Amino acid sequence: MNNTGLKGRNALITGASKGLGRSMAMALANNGARVALVSRDREKLESVAREITGAGGQADVFVGDITNEDQVARIEKEISGALGKVQILINNAGMNLRKNITDFTLEEWRSVQDTNLTSVFLMCRAFVPHMKGTGYGRIINMTSIMAHVSMPQRTAYSSTKAALLGLTKSLALEVATEGITVNGISPGPFATEMNTPILQNPELNAQFIAKIPVGRWGKLEEVGALAAFLCSDEAGFITGTDILIDGGWCAV
Predict the structure, then answer these.
(1) What's the whole-number mean pLDDT along residues 119-139?
(2) CA within 13 Å, CB half, 20
(3) Are the CB atoms for 224 and 27 separated by under 8 Å?
(4) Structural domain range at position 244
(5) 236 pLDDT exceeds 50?
(6) Alpha carbon distance 149, 136 (integer Å)
(7) Which of 19, 54, 103, 228 has the most beta carbons within 10 angstroms of its beta carbon?
(8) What percent of the chain has pLDDT over 70?
(9) What is residue 2's predicted lDDT score, i.e. its pLDDT?
């Protein structure tokens, strides 16, 4: 892609303060989009915004808890006032608690469900109206290889990601005639903060790398490049699907 393919588009990325969210925000800004960075951490968001503006892009910071209905309504109002309509929505915010199911409290279980799934519902409900009637819209939901395969102690996480895949397919059908595409990106092993417990454990790290056919962790910018393409005009015929970016993990 050239670096002006998303010029004139407003893109909203949740969980944009770090990891894959930051990478996708950088990639979209590099392709000309004005990006609205959303998370609960203002300091980290402002750091990402400085990176983007320092590279010649446009970025705005919006702070809030997207699992909270009232705060999502506030964020929508603030973004509308500052940017106008949002044409691109990337639902990236997520969390993972690795526990046996018998060790979960109901509060912990609901926290994972709210962060990974309910927040996507709230954000889509708030911002799909921005896209309707314009002939263009892009929604990317960050699913996971854990929507396709799983591991022990991933019951909460896998259940949310499998449900998010179902949401993605259904919503894609709801809005297909509007020129809005809805797709999932399922990252495999990437060196993000969420995977710090594995990265810092040499034995677990070696086990993970052994399962990856390409023999390495994913690079954050690889997800950014994929997201930028899915938001482009050239990707307008791709909808209702989930793209694995996992180094071959799920092919084994």
Answers:
(1) 98
(2) 29
(3) yes
(4) 10-190+218-251
(5) yes
(6) 33
(7) 228
(8) 99
(9) 52
Handedness of CA 99, 109, 184, 173 (dihedral sign): positive
All residues at 6 or more sequence positions from 157 whose CB lies less than 8 Å from its CB, including other chains: 96, 97, 98, 112, 116, 144, 146
Question: How confident is the model at residue 205, as a pLDDT?
Answer: 87
At residue 96, φ and ψ (nearest 5 deg) are -140, 130
Closest CA to 121 of 67, 182, 176: 67
CATH code, domain with 245: 3.40.50.720
Average per-residue pLDDT in the chain?
95
Catalytic residue among 5, 36, 123, 157: 157
Using the structure block, give the residue that is written with the tokens 């919006």: 62
Q: Is 60 domain-assigned?
A: yes
Q: Which residues of 166-188 are buried (b: 16+ CB within 10 A; e: fewer)?
A: ebbeebbeebeeebbbbbbbbbb
Q: Is 157 a catalytic residue?
A: yes
CA–CA gap between residue 230 and residue 226 (Å, rounded): 6
Q: Is residue 56 part of a domain?
A: yes
How many domains does the chain fold into? 1
pLDDT digits (tens, 9 = 90+) for 35-64: 999 999 999 999 999 999 999 999 999 999
